[in-house]
Batch of 2 targets.
Target 1
Amino acid sequence: MPLEADRALALSHLAVSHETAVRLDIYVDLLLRWQTIKNLVAPSTLEHVWTRHLADSAQLLPLLDGAHTVVDFGSGAGFPGLVLAIAGVDRPGFHVHLVESNGRKASFLREVARATEAPATVHAMRIEDFTAAWRGNADIVTARALAPVGDLLDLGEKLFRAGARGLFLKGRGADQELTDAGKYWRIDAQLLPSVTDPTGRIMVVSKAARRSGP
Ligand SMILES: C[S@@+](CC[C@H](N)C(=O)[O-])C[C@H]1O[C@@H](n2cnc3c(N)ncnc32)[C@H](O)[C@@H]1O
């Protein structure tokens, strides 16, 4: 499918303003430019960048409720965190923290955030170091294609203990991940169908507490 048709399909799923669509265009232009030298996403996904990456990320928007602060673990080229920041630009007080340890990807994230004026801060560091130093509040933790939910809960324990909810874009193994993590965590979670991927699931973790003892 040509890029223009993929863009039209993605935008038909997303209720975004003309201004947001323009910002997303800037994002995609930069991604295509940087990709030739920095290899930021799997080349096979570029043809469907709008549906595969942007619309996939943006489907979390309605689930943010009134969240002000989002922390995105392992942002890569910005999915889902940077898309949420761009699409949420008009929400008062909204801010997304993008945590990405790869320096080349972090530079790209900074460049897109600057060019789109997205309310985002890039933390070029390991998630473990970020959470250890984190002193703020987080309403939501997001992640896509980073780790099974049990590992995400380990990484974000401090944030979940303080009341953050999790929004994780998952594949077909989401049920099994919850079963595995349930050995160590008491989890209130819901699995919603992905709008963009028939095998995908959106995992909504409303509460997670580590089980004590064996
Ligand atoms: C498979 S990519 C997924 C990127 C993006 N979330 C997406 O869905 O396209 C995982 C990303 O997480 C980053 N990452 C992995 N472990 C990390 C850690 N402990 N701290 C910070 N970033 C990490 C990697 O550098 C990589 O960019």
Target 2
Amino acid sequence: MVRAVPLDLTASRRLVVKVGSALLVENGAPRADWLATLAHDLAALRSGGTEIIVVSSGAIALGAAKLGMAKGGRGSLADAQAAASVGQVELARLWAENLGRHDVTAAQMLVTLGDLEDRRRYLNASATLQRLIEAGAVPVVNENDSVATEEIRFGDNDRLAARVAQAAGADAVILLSDVDGLYDRDPREDGAVRLERVEGVTPEIIAMADTSSTSGLGSGGMLAKLQAARIAERAGISLVIANGTHLSPLTRYRDTGIGTVFVPQADASARKAWLAGRLAPAGVLTVDDGCAEALAKGASLLAAGLAEIEGEFARGDLVAIFGPKGERLGQGLVEYSAAECRAILGLREDQQEAKLGYAPRAAVIHRDHMVQA
Ligand SMILES: Nc1ncnc2c1ncn2[C@@H]1O[C@H](COP(=O)(O)OP(=O)(O)O)[C@@H](O)[C@H]1O
Ligand SMILES: N[C@@H](CCC(=O)OP(=O)(O)O)C(=O)O
């Protein structure tokens, strides 16, 4: 068998390192020795010319321990928000201390889903990351859990890491977890085999993730990691899932190559990749067979092909596109409000003006503002 080639982290120009809750926190206390070795690895990579961004979980777990909260602070949203407020203070201190030992300045950056979903705010976050790195700091990013509410939060730091990588123009992401990579089924099952390399996060790959299991402290599970891999591959970013439980986890990955590498697909423009990675559509357009076929060939979505409209959205909002059998086809920025879409549903272009009372825009979603699933 040909040995799969691991991702060469030292070849990365800008790398996002994501650390899961289970790695940082054990029985409510930080894994101090482990963190010291990770900081050492990060400093070494940085000295070799790789710019580093850390995405660190652990605020909820640390805060819950301090407050004596049940269920690791995940019993309710209010608990998670309060636990995160307390834990984030400690998390930032841990990073500042551990990176500081190598004369590296840590910079805390807390973001919400909205900060990366709205194009203007996304560009702003992107500029801040850029400036911090130029200034020689290592951004340590987490979700702003204390203000994020259920509908507008990532909830897992895997997708957040992929979006941050995109915003920062990183070329690689490593998700450090408590498992050696993606297995073809839950790794606790007999006969589970690890995949060395994935070219394209297909529905078959997604089906391998057991949605019910996480390490216990985290929230994402393998499914969130695969969604992150999908965002990354579409943005032309390499992503690897590796086991971070051991001391000096990055050195260990370099020496053993144990992990799963997701190969990027580099064809999308930066804007389309951003669009593909957006996570919160405001509505759903269901289209008929003919329209689904046309979309697959790269056409714009026309009102004539609309079969059903769900949700309330305004012009410019993100909507998901589904085919007649309920299959997800893609998503895009809509040119009409939900009410207008309902009014022109199924109509040909020449019938739309009579219905709306004004000249219609050519497409409901222009192909330049659409990405396939
Ligand atoms: N197909 C799979 N391959 C690997 N791990 C899986 C799979 N399905 C479920 N898992 C579970 O996902 C867990 C990792 O997710 P999670 O606990 O959220 O990690 P983290 O806290 O590092 O983000 C593993 O411990 C494993 O039990
Ligand atoms: N933002 C949260 C972490 C979210 C989360 O659980 O992520 P993960 O442990 O990576 O599945 C925190 O700091 O506790």
